[in-house]
């Protein structure tokens, strides 16, 4: 029988599901599974990707909420359903006879019938002075997340990744004054034609550093000494999935190196799911939450099938060991 609540005094325990990562994907999966009265533990290292951002957007009823506040609310909600939250880092996940063994850096071990990995990704930033310091403040990433707050202002796009061209074209929806600094990015003839047609101005030259004064971005300095004045800039980082746990388990990947799942987050390894930015770099917070919900639904369905199969097998085994009723025995009395 499934327990209604978890044994919170059990330092090392067996769970129906262990969720690794307590972002929107992991917490929403835990919420659904907790409400389904599954025994669930969530393990998180406390390093969310959107920590530098002061607000998140595009999440119905939560638009403008600080990301940390959303996570605090989520942890409080899952606790109401007996989901256990553990602060720590998972070092590895190993297959075992009873499912999976989750080994944490502090030596603790958890056993789970199913595992959901929602460890997100990290943004690899270019080695340009000032970039790391201004990241998430006035050096931004996602137009859908941040462009409305800087609408109608002069904007710059740093050409450090191929996605910068699309980013510059997109930002014209929020501002009539958008420049692209190609930096070391090679632009095709078609790129230049599209940018010119869209009204995006190119400023050629290699970027030396961001100019900061009074804890504010003031411009972008080029190696030839020119300074392009801008108070807000966008940069498309290189997304690196935190998928080491999935890689060690042998989960299949696509040609771009990202773990492959079906629509529910099921990986190629039985009993292992993944959700959120660890498998989709484009997933916003609201998208990741939906992916977690879909994974939780599918995981519970699989556990239900397993529970029913076990119950049927036990019933058949029990029936096979019971003596036949005397009235039903062939050749018995009364025949």
TrEMBL record:
Q: Which Gene3D superfamilies match?
A: FAD/NAD(P)-binding domain
- FAD/NAD(P)-binding domain: residues covered: 15-290
Q: Which reaction does it catalyse?
A: [thioredoxin]-dithiol + NADP(+) = [thioredoxin]-disulfide + NADPH + H(+)
Database matches in Pfam families: Pyr_redox_2
Task: Provide ranges: composition bias, Polar residues.
Answer: 319-335
Region: Disordered; residue ranges are 314-335
Task: State a single Gene Ontology molecular function.
Answer: thioredoxin-disulfide reductase (NADPH) activity
The alphabetical list of record keywords is: Flavoprotein, Oxidoreductase
Q: Which domain of life is it from?
A: Bacteria
This protein is called what?
Thioredoxin reductase
**UniProt source species:** Amycolatopsis taiwanensis
């Amino acid at each position: 029988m499934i327990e209604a609540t978890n044994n919170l005094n059990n330092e090392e325990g067996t769970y129906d599901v262990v969720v690794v990562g307590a972002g929107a994907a992991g917490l929403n999966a835990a919420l659904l599974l907790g409400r389904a009265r599954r025994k669930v533990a969530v393990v998180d290292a406390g390093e969310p990707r959107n920590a530098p951002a002061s607000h998140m957007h595009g999440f119905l009823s939560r638009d403008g909420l600080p990301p940390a506040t959303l996570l605090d609310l989520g942890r409080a909600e899952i606790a109401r359903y007996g989901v256990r939250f553990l602060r720590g880092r998972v070092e590895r996940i190993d297959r075992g006879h009873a499912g999976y063994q989750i080994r944490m850096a502090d030596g603790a071990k958890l056993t789970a019938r199913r595992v959901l990995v929602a460890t997100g990704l990290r943004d690899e930033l270019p080695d340009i002075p000032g970039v790391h310091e201004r990241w998430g403040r006035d050096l931004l990433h996602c137009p859908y997340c941040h462009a409305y707050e800087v609408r109608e202002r002069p904007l710059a796009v740093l050409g450090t990744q191929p996605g910068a061209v699309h980013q510059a074209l997109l930002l014209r929806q929020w501002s009539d004054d958008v420049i692209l600094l190609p930096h070391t990015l090679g632009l095709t003839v078609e790129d230049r034609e599209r940018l010119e047609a869209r009204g995006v101005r190119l400023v050629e030259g290699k970027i030396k550093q961001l100019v900061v004064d009074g804890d504010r971005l003031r411009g972008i300095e080029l190696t030839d000494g020119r300074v392009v004045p801008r108070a807000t800039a966008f940069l498309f980082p290189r997304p690196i999935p935190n998928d080491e746990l999935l890689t060690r388990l042998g989960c299949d990947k696509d040609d771009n190196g990202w773990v492959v799942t079906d629509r529910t987050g099921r990986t190629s390894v039985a009993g292992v799911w993944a959700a959120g930015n660890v498998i989709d770099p484009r997933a916003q917070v609201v998208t990741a939450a939906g992916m977690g919900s879909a994974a939780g639904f599918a995981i519970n369905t699989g556990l239900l099938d397993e529970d029913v199969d076990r119950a049927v097998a036990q019933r058949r085994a029990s029936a096979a060991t019971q003596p036949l009723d005397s009235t039903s025995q062939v050749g018995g009395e009364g025949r």
